[in-house]
Give the backbone structure.
Amino acid sequence: MVFDFDIAIISRVFVFLLPSFLNPATATQSTHSQQITDPKTDLVLARCQYLNTCDFWWTSRRPVSLPTTTSEFDGIVTPVIEPVFSKVTEDVPGAEGPVFDKKGDFYVVAPGVENEGKPAGEILRIDLNTGKKTVICKPKVDDFGGIPAGCQCDRENNQLFVADMRLGLLIVQTDGSFEQIAKKDADDRVMQGCNDCAFDYRGDLWITAPAGDIAPAKYTRSMQEKFGSVYCFTTDGEMIRIDTGYQFPNGIAVQHMNDGRPRKLIVAETPTKKLWSYDIKGPGKVENKKVWGNIPGTHEGGADGMDFDEDNNLLVANWGSSHIEVFGSDGGEPKLRIRCPFAKPSNLQFKPQSKTVFVTEHDSNSVWKFEWQRNGKKQFSETMSSFGQL
């Protein structure tokens, strides 16, 4: 029997073997990746802290969805699970931006494609049954090729909004045609190169922009200098820069209230291993910036793409760590880690109305999938049009 391990109510898990089955000398050992079950009995006794306010105990035969190891960083012990990953396709240079359109077709971007040493990024459609890749668009503006890095699908027109590190924000039709949205923001500043984007349920698109000015300016990016920005492209067609001074802003997500109103904007700052949040007050209007979450590890890399499940748990690709971090709705430290069969997960996306998560990665530039414990949160493209009036 497989039990659903409800991580939505667990903030810390400390795992012990029953004393009768343990060697006392090893009972208190803390290792980086420590087995927590006795192979003879497969019996787990876990002490869990319920929403940081009360404790409860549970015992069961170990189901496949329970943590099988733990990981420790800065004195914080976090359970780790190892779901089965299946490879969907490979050889997508710089694989990023997984997204489904309204018809259920699946797309990724290949920002690493070059032509004679110059950017020539691609947007591809992937057949999930065969893994076959079809290039639908190779964006190019005034002889400058693109570096597409993130995608979202809109609700009304089934078109892809693509964050491009060289060209800014693009709208790409599923037939391959495209247009560049804005060369300047609402304050007449040249747009910066964009990396990722996320719709809220009103239809406003929130965008990270870690690169320097878009083409024809010289391409610049840095993991050390703090010139990254965050934008909002509103339903009124305004491109509003809401903040700047980031050290490579990367993944981005919107947390919604139960009634569908956008609540918080979450922004990943990769080198600092920080997740920042803002309270959303309206289209392009935010306040109360603060650290929302901390990414574990001392590796080169950090938070990349992310997506919410239906219980507002945030799954975050931790590039360079071999893990996807799972945060509760209030952030803080990860309450669960998902071990991947690759070191550099770059982004992730739930298949609509399912528990299947599609993950891009930079070790073999492949796309993988695994089953999570609950469905993903609805994307903007899946919502009813009434949300657009919120």
Observations:
- Residues 1-64 have pLDDT under 50 and may be disordered.
- The radius of gyration is 21 Å.
